[in-house]
Amino acid sequence: MKNKLSHGAKFYMMLILVFLYLPIVVMAMFSFNESASTYVFSGFSTKWWGEMFSNQAAMRALYNTLVLAVATAICSTALGTLAAVGIFNAKNRLYKNAIMTVTNIPMMNPEIVTGISMMLLFAFAGVVVNKSNVLGFGTLLIAHITFSLPYVILNIMPKLKQFDMNIYEAAVDLGCKPVKAFFKVVMPNIASGILTGLVMSFTLSLDDFIISYFTNGPSFQTLPIYIFSMTKKRVKPDMYALSTLIFIVIFILLILMNIAQNKANKKGKSESK
Fold first, then answer.
1. Taking 60 as the threshold, does the pLDDT of residue 115 lie above it?
2. Which of 24-33, 77-86, 167-176, 209-218 has the highest mean pLDDT?
3. 117-142 burial: b if 16+ Cβ within 10 Å, else e
4. Contact residues for 45 (Cβ-Cβ < 8 A; gap 6+)
5. pLDDT at 76
6. d(CA 24, CA 40)
7. Do the Cβ atoms of 79 and 145 come closer than 8 Å?
């Protein structure tokens, strides 16, 4: 009976993996298609990859997306680390629970609600400061930090709970300044959580469409919005090549992140022994 269940579980897991990754494999395969067909593979060619790099509008949108994602990851990680430490050190349990509930709202809230509400907020702010065309890189960055911040906090909080704060207090008692003690003692122990939050906020910003659609302006266009504008016409295989390239980069980042987490976990176990 157990063997049947294990075989069934393996088949179910394989089915899920095929369902999730087969479309990506098909997309990558047709990025090397000789013709522009999306359903007939007529021959192997790299011409669409060449056209991808020669498409100035797509490269500009990719550049904007990467700049936005990097800025979001850095700002979200810095603010999220400070917020996680502040929440963890809060003495009032009711206050801590209330802050964590508020932190979880952007994760549970539908993205379209977040996007529309932030668009209205930015439009109102533009009226207050008497400025038209307020939407742009700044509004996109604020919006992306808003929905990325909870993920950073939730990745760092478990690491803080695992850390023995007596070590930090001992460092302070021995004459180390609190800020220096934090960077020397606490930071190395929560580094894996910070790294996870950094990569997660980067990937969330990289592929966001709904919130970006409502908070971007005409002067700054991200790649998801650029690809969406192309769906009104016919999407050429050069966009398949670009999407494949982004997937490969994200896949490599996730592998590196998992390697770093495994090393940190092994280091923590060896130190605890």
1. yes
2. 77-86
3. ebbeebeeeeeeeeeeebbebebbbe
4. 32, 33, 34
5. 94
6. 16
7. yes
What is the pLDDT, as a whole number, of residue 264? 67
DSSP characters over 72-115: HHHHHHHHHHHHHHHHHH---HHHHHHHHHHHHHHHHS-HHHHH
pLDDT in tens, 240-257: 888 888 888 888 877 877
How far apart are alpha carbons 163 and 272 in whole angstroms? 11
**111 vs 214: CA distance, rounded Å:** 10
Q: Which long-range contacts (CB under 8 A, 24 or more apart) does 256-263 make?
A: 257/195, 257/196, 257/199, 260/192, 260/195, 261/192, 261/195, 261/196
Q: Percent helix, strand, coil in the chain (nearest 5)? A: 80, 0, 20
Q: Is the CA virtual torsion 163, 198, 245, 18 positive or negative?
A: positive
Q: DSSP label at 208?
A: -
* pTM, two decimal places: 0.82
